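Lab notebook, bench 4. The sequencing result for the construct came back, and we need a structural model before the next group meeting so we can plan mutations. Quick request posted to the team channel:

Model the 3D structure of this chain.
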Amino acid sequence: VMYLLYCLKESYDVVSQKDIESPGERSLSSTSATSSLSTAGASKGKNSWKLKSIVTLALTLLTSSQAILIVWSKRAGKYEYSVTTANFSVEALKCLLSLIALYRTWNSQGVTEDNRLSTSFDEVSVYPIPAILYMVKNLLQYYIFAYVDAPAYQILKNLNIISTGVLYRIILKKKLSEIQWAAFVLLCAGCTTAQLNPSSDHVLQTPIQGWVMAIVMALLSGFAGVYTEAIIKKRPSRNINVQNFWLYIFGMLFNLVAICVQDFDAVMNKGFFHGYSFITVLMILNHALSGIAVSMVMKYADNIVKVYSTSVAMLLTAVVSVFLFGFHLSLAFFLGSTVVSVSVYLHSVGKPQPQK
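Done. Here's the predicted structure in token form:
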């Protein structure tokens, strides 16, 4: 899927370049120039539509399969592999992909001040904080599945919208509209509704431990996201692959520490990749590509694409879980996921408009 994204990006860039060059080089008359511009515009619109469609499909598939692959990678209810080594592998793969993208930039644009890999203290000192927050959050996502199933995880992970919005308001002083505050209330209601369990003495399916872990993950994800955006906005001209590279480098370092603290004996005695299966490898690839897909949504599509992908992914995860894990698709879950989807959409379209 990501290869198709890359190929389409290249074709989109080529089409865009031709849109600029062809009128000057091929215009033999005003009529032919107008015709050329019309054809180029139609071609560009068609390619833009294709690009958004493929980005949406890729993000939906990656998002919906993320929780499924983690649960599927278990054997007899536990992970046979080391989750810290899996986390390290994800960061290493993302770092490699960032380097490849950066190498392509150097070949096409040359090495400039904005895409150079600087090792100055001011450059790299800002990345350890978000890296360690993401590391803890990514480790927690493995352990939360002791208390929730894959569909519930897809619902509860949307709580990071609330934490991100509130932290934006507190840290970056961004104003939230009344629609966005209403969306937060709807989101809480939707998450709770989806977890209702009328056939049991327990009102909610997810135990208190699962809710606590989901809230902690949302807070970590929100703070890391806001902090990372503040770094990017501090130097907006800086190449995103350079920023990602340093973020992933520190992610690898912190995950190495986690390996030494938690799984050192197991790794030394059984090997780094002990217990890995084909599903584990797919899971690592999924985690690495998901971040890249989100970046491509922000660059080549729009935020509505992410909203649609998130909404469809919740339902798709539930449907697949019915066949793989015997998940019961209840009316409460369907209504709750619908409310969550509406709240995510309202939060997206309710952003305050800049004053003219």
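DSSP finds 14 helices and no strands in the chain.
Will bring this to the meeting.
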